[in-house]
Specification:
The protein is of the alpha/beta class. The chain is built from eight helices and nine strands.
């Protein structure tokens, strides 16, 4: 398998019904050898299984629970591709942008859709932009990551390398954990940023709790900096 696209989903059936046809078109223009994995909740909470069956996507139930970390680990484990793209299922990551990530692929590299390099940006509210920029500066500085956008999950990975990782984080901080552990596993891994305009979600509501978000990121920063776990 050349390319796997992994999409964590939590009650995103309405968005998937719009995104999957666009994603098939975008991927078919890149390679004929691809797969789309929708990583749903442990037990279905909406029509996501039916949407996947109808629109030719591989349905994966995350294990063992319903956290975002469970979804990422389940998706990476199930992906067969030489290259693996992770992207959101809420419409904030346009399928057409996968070409920009794929064109930059190279062994021992992570290609990041970056909001914070020249040409990038975001439609988020001011408070979310402020939190995101602060988080990115702190994480990149403390953890020594030469990267402006460590928190956007829209990325392309070397499939063999990312499948070797032992990931522990349960929430959205797993996005940073992947970068830190890839750099530890393969110090020569290059973090390549491609300018990206982050869009608002299409349908539904966000699953992020801001208080839990902040507390989780602080504890994770401490663990990634001072622990080998």
């Amino acid at each position: 398998m050349n390319l796997s696209v992994v999409m964590p989903a939590y009650e995103e059936a309405a968005n998937l019904a719009k995104l999957l046809p666009r994603l098939h078109v975008a991927l078919a223009a890149i390679t004929a050898d691809y797969e789309i994995l929708v990583v749903d909740t442990h037990e279905p909470r909406d029509e996501t299984p039916d949407v996947c069956e109808r629109l030719d996507a591989r349905y994966v139930a995350r294990q063992p629970g319903d956290t975002y970390g469970d979804a990422v680990r389940s998706g990476i484990s199930a992906a067969n591709g030489e290259w693996v793209i992770l992207m959101d299922a809420d419409g904030s990551h346009p399928p057409e942008f996968v070409k920009s990530l794929y064109e930059k692929r190279a062994k021992k590299s992570v290609i990041i859709a970056s909001r914070y390099v020249r040409g990038g940006g975001t439609q988020d509210r001011f408070i979310l932009r402020l939190m995101s920029r602060t988080l990115n500066v702190i994480y990149s500085t403390v953890l020594g990551l030469k990267c402006r956008d460590v928190s956007n999950s829209f990325r392309l990975y070397d499939g063999e390398e990312v499948r070797q990782l032992r990931l522990r984080c349960q929430n959205f901080d797993i996005v940073e954990e992947v970068l830190v552990k890839l750099k530890k596993q393969t110090p020569k891994t290059a973090l390549i940023e491609v300018p990206f305009q982050f869009q608002k979600r299409d349908e539904g509501v966000t699953k992020r709790n801001l208080v839990a978000f902040i507390l989780t990121y602080l504890s994770t920063l401490w663990r990634l900096k001072f622990s080998n776990a």
